[in-house]
Amino acid sequence: LSPAELRSRARRLKREHDIALIVVDYLQLMQVPGRGDNRVAEISEISRSLKALAKELGLPIIALSQLNRSLENRTEKRPQMSDLRESGAIEQDADLILFLYRDEVYHKDKEEVKGLAEVIIGKQRNGPIGTVRMSFFGEYTRFENYAPLDGGA
C-alpha cells in the first residue's frame, strides 16, 4: 500500500463512515512507487504523509513499526528511540512513541517477571515520558492495569 492509496481510501472512509482512527500495521510494509532505491528516504516520505493525512482528516493514525535487531546484541533489552527501524523521520514526525517490553521474553526462568509488561513512553510531544507497568495475560494477548498482589507499588 502506498501513502497515496492510503490517503484515497481514508478520505473515502472518512466521508462514508466518519472513521475516527487509522491503524497502519505496519509502517515498513508501505511503499512509495519509484523510491525503492533509498529505504530511509522512503520511510521518511511515508512518515510525513501519515502525519499530513492525520492533520487533514483530523484523526489519529497509529503506525506500528519494526525495531532494529541491534537491541538483541546488548545487555539492556528495553527498546529505545534509536531502535526504531529507519527511525529518523519516525522520531521527528510522531507525536507519541510507545514501546512494549516484557522482561519474561528474555528471562523465562525469573518467576517475578512473569505476567508483567511495560509500556515505555519514548516520546510525547505534549507531555512527559516514562514507563507504565502493566499486567500481561499471554493466553489472551491482553494487557491490563497493573495491580500488585501484595497491594504495594
Structure description:
- With 153 residues, this protein is of the alpha+beta class.
- It has 2 domains: 1-94, P-loop containing nucleotide triphosphate hydrolases (Rossmann fold); 95-153, no CATH class.
- The chain is built from 3 helices and 6 strands.
- It has a 4-stranded antiparallel sheet with strand order 3-4-5-6, with no helix packed on it. Strands 1-2 form a two-stranded parallel ribbon.
- Helix 2 (39-57) links the parallel strand 1 and strand 2 (61-63).
- The termini are far apart.
What does the average pLDDT come to?
A: 91
Main β-sheet: number of strands, strand sense, barrel status?
4 strands, antiparallel
Number of strands: 6
The tally of domains stands at 2
The fraction of residues in strands falls at 15-25%
Rg (C-alpha, Å):
18 Å
Low-confidence segments, given as residue ranges, are none
Instruction: Based on Cα principal axes, name the global outline.
Output: globular
CATH evolutionary superfamily of the largest domain: P-loop containing nucleotide triphosphate hydrolases
CATH topology of the largest domain: Rossmann fold
What distance lies between the first and last C-alpha atoms, to the nearest angstrom? 44 Å
Judged by helices, strands and strand pairing, the structural class is alpha+beta
Number of distinct helices: 3
Q: Would you list the SSEs in sequence order as H and E? A: HEHEHEEEE
CATH architecture of the largest domain: 3-Layer(aba) Sandwich
Strand order of the largest sheet: 3-4-5-6
